[in-house]
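Before relying on records like the one below, remember that each one covers exactly one chain. Contacts with other chains, cofactors or solvent are not represented anywhere in the record.
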Amino acid sequence: MSIFTNKNTPAQEESPIISEAQALKRSRKAKSIKKAFATAKRVISFGRPFHGYLYIALIAIFVQTFFELLVPIFIGKAIDNIISFGLVNFSELLKYLGFVAICVVINVIFTWMANYYTNKYCFKSSERMRKILFEKFNTVPLKFLDTNQHGDLLSRIINDVELLTDGYLEGLSSITNGIVTIIATLVFMFVLNVPLALVVLVITPISLVIASYIARKSFKLFAEQARSEGELNGYLEEMISGDRLVSAFNYQEQAQENFEKINQKFYKVSEKAEFYSNLTNPATRFINGFVYIMVAFVGAFLAIQGNVTVGLISSFLTYANSFGKPFNELSTEITELQAAIASSDRIFAILDAKDEPSDENLPELASTDGVVEIKNVNFSYNPKQELIKNFNLNVLPGQTIAIVGPTGCGKTTLINLLMRFYDVNDGAIYLDGNEITQIKRKSLRNKYGMVLQETWIFSGTIKENIAYGKPNATDEEIIAASKAAGADDFIVKMSHGYNTQVNEDGSNLSAGQKQLLCIARVMLIKPPMLILDEATSNIDTRTEQKIQDAFSSLMVGRTTFVVAHRLSTIKNADKILVMNKGNVIEQGTHNELIALKGFYYYLYNSQFAKV
């Protein structure tokens, strides 16, 4: 008894382990299927306003499939008619051929309708999808855009949407057409002859099993292909936008090598994905050919016995092809579906990104005196690396606050916090006694005019670029702002003056000209507060002096924050904040800080020291 028990103990211990593995495998499969359906439901929701086109397409698919399947019956009857009478009965033959012609014409019309309305539905849906994605970019925090490669984001909104449309939306039409064809063909075949219908029914689905197996193998490759394509687009975007830098540092060969590595990686994974996916069609066609042979063999055997006619065999051979064709198309759609699922993950990663907290119900700040108070603020981009620690500042109306310090000390970060491009981790920032997280972002940002060291010019006319913050500005206002910024001199000398077309990124303008246009934007809107982050870094000394005079006039009565590396430009500031490693280590006027002979004294004198 004890021997029997011990002998079976391993089996008893193994059983639960096997059952757990099987359960895990089934669970993963169920999750995968559930995910595919959930993804399909979500993708289809993008086309909800255009479902009318989809319904028309589906009706057209039903009609065209029905008349397509009637054709083999009439052809079979025509063949039987010829064989039965020995001589051609032209009246009967013409009748069947007439039916064939009518069916073909109706089939063609409704096939065109199905394709037209399917494409219309797909194009409208992808258009709406891209619109929603673009709107999403305006609602996510800047951190999301800062931490994702811009070229990869472009790839998602263009290439991945295209793959998603092909895989799900166009696939929906193909799959529906295939299912309708399969069911209708089965009905026609069973009505005509049960044994031949069973031959087709038993063998043909093997092709779907083969296609599903190949699709599972290729899914990971398609996901890797999508990621690799995003990496390739990101690198291209960097190299094209930085072409001058590439040339200046003779980086062409290294850039070419890097590109070839990424391109080769994309090629290899694409080749593998396509290799596996392209196995599907030959495999399923082999099964279809085998079905065709079996139908012909069994049909011939039944015809010899007198159970079927030659015309019926002819119809069945056509139905065997019709029945197998959807399985081929479905196998192709499964392959495209794998690519679509991989793309959907990348698209939904954007759509599911956390939005900035809504400020819809918060009040607007109608006006401001320019009183800024920063209390015990802590902030870091990376939780593991502290940047700004326990920062405090009080700014009175109309004061000019200069922020200086070595690179990476937190100067620009402070500007990001004032504008709420990023929110503080701890502490609070107040404007006129209102915590800035408790007022609408739009009303907060409207109070500042900002000129950054990094200029941004869009494709359009010079006039449109200057009026970016005030689209309804008159020509007189634009010209006055340009003159104040010192930009009018070069604008009037251009081919079409203020209507001169600017290339993307302002590539047909110099760095200094672009910065003058950015300054003119601020001069035009005349905001109650100013942020100047190295606003004259790309401008010659003579022009800079003119702009400094214009800024001095504009800054009167306006609270102004100035980030500067050239310390000679901020000697007249009401208060200078000296930052280092995220902390304000010194503050005061220029003369006070020089007299202190501390960090500012060292920075100031280092700019005039002999090399």
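The first strand starts at residue 372 and ends at 379.
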